[in-house]
Amino acid sequence: MLSQESLKQIDKELAKYPAERNRSAVMSALRIAQTELGWLSTDTIAFVADYIRIPATQAMEVATFYGMYNLKPVGKYKLAVCTNLPCALRGGVNTAEY
Asked: Can you give the pTM of this predicted structure?
């Protein structure tokens, strides 16, 4: 599913942590997979989880929690608009609707 180069990069990330702490490399591994493929399908997330020897649900929790992971194919540009209270007071909601 991933190229040998990507798997080597994931192995480098895994080497930074003790063997029993593979979960610590999940964010880096997901980033590497997303860089290669452009987005993370559920199959890709499961593959990464299996490769770093953690449950797929743990990898899915990370991928769905952070907004930096694309869970659907994206276009050339990804726009993010701040819509929390301070941004809403400055017109962020209007920008998002535009």
From this structure: 0.81
Range of the domain at 20: 4-97
More confident site: 25 or 90: 25
What b-and-e string marks burial along 29-52, b requiring 16 or more CB atoms within 10 Å of the CB? Answer: bbbbbbeebeebeeebbbbbbebb
Output the pLDDT for position 43: 98
The token pair at 77 is 């540009």
Q: Return mean pLDDT, the chain.
A: 92
**Counted domains in the chain:** 1
DSSP letters for 22-62: GGGGHHHHHHHHHHHHSS--HHHHHHHHHHTTS-HHHHHHH
